[in-house]
């Protein structure tokens, strides 16, 4: 043991929160773009495209995120690509997020009443116009609570990036603990910081879900 917990350690932990948020935002935004494409493919009337998207979703959801991190970070290095830890973590989380968000949004699209589609056909709207002008705006309201709920899980899953050396909140806690060996204090603080990040989002998601249930009644 070399000394105790100091203010510099606390500052280091707080600064690492920024990298956790950067990684979370990167994964969520890029995963959202990928998830939208996956969702469109999943609801496509073309059977081959829908089945391809289904295989992608099931494959990614069936692989632990840790394995995806190893594949991207260590796998690409075999072929001579030295990928920075932030890029590797962002890519792995993007792929992971796209499968889950695509599946969440697909369910919300398919939950829209069938008469909405039929009415759009009567107005001679194309399938894309129906989605863009009628279905997606309504489905967004339904999709918001589970999307925010997934964001909460994504923030917590960024802790796995520590295994490839990316210095986010969990990795910063490990580094400090290795120097002063006060695990209860260090990881208690790390857990408290994750709670502060995630709890407001969890409450927001729950609040939106409750409002949605009330309005549906």
TrEMBL record:
In which compartments does the protein localize?
Cell inner membrane; Cell membrane
Gene Ontology CC entries for this record: ATP-binding cassette (ABC) transporter complex
Its main subcellular localisation, reduced to a broad class, is: membrane
Start and end residues of each ABC transmembrane type-1 domain: 17-205
The family database entries (SUPFAM superfamilies) matched by this protein are listed as:
MetI-like
Q: Where are the transmembrane segments?
A: 17-41, 53-75, 81-102, 142-167, 179-201
Q: Which residues form a coiled coil?
A: none
Superkingdom of the source?
Answer: Bacteria
**Single GO term (MF):** transmembrane transporter activity
PANTHER family per record: BLR6398 PROTEIN, MEMBRANE COMPONENT OF AMINO ACID ABC TRANSPORTER
The similarity annotation says: Belongs to the binding-protein-dependent transport system permease family. HisMQ subfamily.
Q: Can you say what this protein is called?
A: Amino acid ABC transporter permease
């Amino acid at each position: 043991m070399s000394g105790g917990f100091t203010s510099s350690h606390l500052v280091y932990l707080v600064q690492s929160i920024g990298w956790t948020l950067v990684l979370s935002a990167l994964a969520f935004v890029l995963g959202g773009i990928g998830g939208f494409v996956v969702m469109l493919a999943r609801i496509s009337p073309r059977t081959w495209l829908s089945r391809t998207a289904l295989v992608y979703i099931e494959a990614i959801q069936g692989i632990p995120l840790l394995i995806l991190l190893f594949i991207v970070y260590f796998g690409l290095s075999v072929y001579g690509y030295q990928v920075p830890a932030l890029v590797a973590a962002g890519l792995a989380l993007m792929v992971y997020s796209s499968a889950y968000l695509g599946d969440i949004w697909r369910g919300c699209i398919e939950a829209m009443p069938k008469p909405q589609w039929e009415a759009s056909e009567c107005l001679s709207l194309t399938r894309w116009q129906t989605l863009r002008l009628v279905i997606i705006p309504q489905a967004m309201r339904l999709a918001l609570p589970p999307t925010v709920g997934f964001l909460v899980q994504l923030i917590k899953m960024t802790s796995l990036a520590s295994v490839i050396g990316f210095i986010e909140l969990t990795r910063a806690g490990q580094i400090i603990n290795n120097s002063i060996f006060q695990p209860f204090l260090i990881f208690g603080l790390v857990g408290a910081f994750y709670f502060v990040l995630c709890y407001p989002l969890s409450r927001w998601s729950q609040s939106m879900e409750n409002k949605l249930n009330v309005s549906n009644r």
